[in-house]
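> call design_seq(struct)
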């Protein structure tokens, strides 16, 4: 399965965070044994995910599995929990018996809540004990219900968020720039965004590389490619590349290859 091309979300249960955390956490999710069996039966399968610069935690409640991050392979053991930045293409090689709880942060969310800068985690698979207390992870695994795990984690995150990160200003500026870009038909340059925020182009460059770990140009190219590809897959007959800031369809096709490593024709039904 490939993200965007396929509905990988059908394999999971989802929960949105409480309003206080909604700007920083995109969702909590957990593997659904029933949906996974309907899709894969007793066979191994692979989930391919594209860059998003969203720190993502995988708490392993089941069996070992394999992660491929860029060109590096990692064997994740049964009791190992990890965090990845998702600044590169990621593949997770699964078994039908896999059971994974996921926390997906928005860019900068890890820093806003826990005061931990995500930029340091590029191209790495980090043990989750570096981010979350081992006692908390142990308690999560002792619980039996998805809703209980979500409630426990939200309580922990809220307790940490109330301490306020000293770098919350930088995160706030970056998030405002992301919101403005999304509302501006994905055509604004970093210089134009800097003008909207009353800061210099050099400053917005520095904030993005510091908070997210990449330049505004690279990050927004990723955002645009994801949004455009999702719109194309949803309804290719109504898709217009111009609505996503592309010059023409050729420009869009080239970006899809660069972003996913695949041609659209390879995923045609």
């Amino acid at each position: 399965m490939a993200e965007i091309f396929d509905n990988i979300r059908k394999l999971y249960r989802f929960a949105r965070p409480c309003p206080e955390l909604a700007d920083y956490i995109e969702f909590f999710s957990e593997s659904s044994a029933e949906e996974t069996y309907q899709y894969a039966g007793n066979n191994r399968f692979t989930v391919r995910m594209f860059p998003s610069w969203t720190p993502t935690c995988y708490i392993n409640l089941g069996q070992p599995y394999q992660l491929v991050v860029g060109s590096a392979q990692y064997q994740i053991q049964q009791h190992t929990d990890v965090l990845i930045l998702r600044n590169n293409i990621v593949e997770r090689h699964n078994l039908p018996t896999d059971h994974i709880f996921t926390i997906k942060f928005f860019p900068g969310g890890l820093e806003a809540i826990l005061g931990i800068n995500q930029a340091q985690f590029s191209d790495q698979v980090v043990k989750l004990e570096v981010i979350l207390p081992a006692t908390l992870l142990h308690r999560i695994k002792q619980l039996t219900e998805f809703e209980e795990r979500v409630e426990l984690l939200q309580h922990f995150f809220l307790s940490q968020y109330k301490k306020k990160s000293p770098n919350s200003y930088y995160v706030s500026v970056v998030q405002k720039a992301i919101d403005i870009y999304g509302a501006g038909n994905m055509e604004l340059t970093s210089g134009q965004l800097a003008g909207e925020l009353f800061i210099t182009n050099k400053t917005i460059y520095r904030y993005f590389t510091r908070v997210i770990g990449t330049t505004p140009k690279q990050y927004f190219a990723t955002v645009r490619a994801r949004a455009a590809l999702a719109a194309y897959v949803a309804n290719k007959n109504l898709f217009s590349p111009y609505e996503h800031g592309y010059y023409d369809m050729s420009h869009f096709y080239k970006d899809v290859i660069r972003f996913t490593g695949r041609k659209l024709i390879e995923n045609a039904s």
